[in-house]
Amino acid sequence: MSVPIRQQLSVAKYLLQQKFKGNKRYPLVLMLEPLFRCNLACAGCGKIDYPDEILNRRLSIDECLASVDECGAPIVSIAGGEPLLHKELPQIVEGIIQRKKYVYLCTNALLLKKRIDDYKPSPYLTFSIHLDGNRERHDASVCQKGVFDRAAEAVEMAISRGFRVTINCTLFQGENAEEIAAFLDYCKKLGVEGTTIAPGFSYEHAPAQDIFIKMRDSKELFRKVFKLGRGRKWKLNHSSLYLDFLAGNQGYNCTPWGNPTRNIFGWQKPCYLLVDEGYAPSFKALMEETPWQKYGNSKNPKCANCMAHCGYEASAVEDAVKNPLKAAWVALFGPRTDGPMAPEPVPEYDADTVGAKTRPAIRIHAVD
Ligand code: SF4
Ligand code: SF4
């Protein structure tokens, strides 16, 4: 894992506190979406399909900071929409840093050069830049030529100014393991702290639906990528067991409460990927009222192909706390890339969910 030791220790301390208190469900990363407006219109986006009156709404500084306090997660991922379009974002980021929470500011980077002076380098602040692969693939993914070059330039500029920078990459249909491996080499060469990589989630409201990868195909793709990665020293911004899960070696249940989402509608049930399940008025209500047992690969057809970090990174971290030797082994030697995979979840949809629309595959907006 490429995360600095200071951050790892502070997250470990938080996890131990939760265990000590006997908390069974607790948040690890708050997904804060202060607006849905974006300056791009990607084909697979599940966030920008709203009328103007919704796209014009913003969470205020007070609403954002109250949500951070209410939730208590040690990490806050600010996504959207495009967060840099929010005029009060610098104050929101500053307020979160003052609370000693780690902020991942997720951006497509088109405005980063213009807005960089609004921010100061800090161990608590990371710019997480959306890059879905090499130039050709990224520009196709965001439906606009030239975006890759502008984002790559912004990455170099932010690193040269002393900021922590990571890359967030979402994979879609038609990905090729060699291309992904070359992209991860490129990320390493750029000098970013780490790269987040996951298969896309098929948003029900995304304009394109034929671009998402099925779960089995995702696992096979990740096995090929990890095999190619041996000795190439990529910095992947995930826990070792989440990578093992991507390679099909772990069969986790989803823990969406690990990544609660707050946006202009309230607290989103159960995670930021499912948009039609309703909202809770407070974090407490979200934790108490959400029918968590109805979500996850085997539980809900809408979740069938999901391998997103918002559902499974917290499951992997929980497993690592219980099985540190297993986690250390995978961290040292990498995920297994051949042999049998962990069994696929067997659907057990109940009467309420079986009528839900079944979709062929999945996409993640992740943290862009
Ligand atoms: S996927 Fe991200 S960058 Fe693309 S339109 Fe949606 S919010 Fe904007
Ligand atoms: S499986 Fe994925 S989509 Fe379903 S609740 Fe979990 S994180 Fe959300």
TrEMBL record:
UniProt cross-references to Pfam families, sorted A to Z: DUF3463, Radical_SAM
Q: Signal peptide span per the entry?
A: none
Tell me the cofactors it needs: [4Fe-4S] cluster
Q: Which CDD domains match?
A: Radical_SAM
SUPFAM superfamilies recorded: Radical SAM enzymes
* Domain Radical SAM core as annotated: residue spans: 20-236
What InterPro entries does UniProt report for this protein, alphabetically? Aldolase_TIM, DUF3463, Hopanoid_synth-assoc_rSAM_HpnH, Radical_SAM_PqqE_MftC-like, rSAM, rSAM_sf
Q: Which organism is it from?
A: Methylocaldum marinum
**Could you tell me what this protein is called?**
MoaA/NifB/PqqE family protein
Tell me the PROSITE patterns matching this sequence: RADICAL_SAM
Establish whether keyword Metal-binding is in the entry.
yes
Keyword Coiled coil in the entry? The reply is no
- Name the Gene Ontology molecular function terms of this record: catalytic activity; iron-sulfur cluster binding; metal ion binding
Keywords for the protein's UniProt record, in alphabetical order = Iron, Iron-sulfur, Metal-binding, S-adenosyl-L-methionine
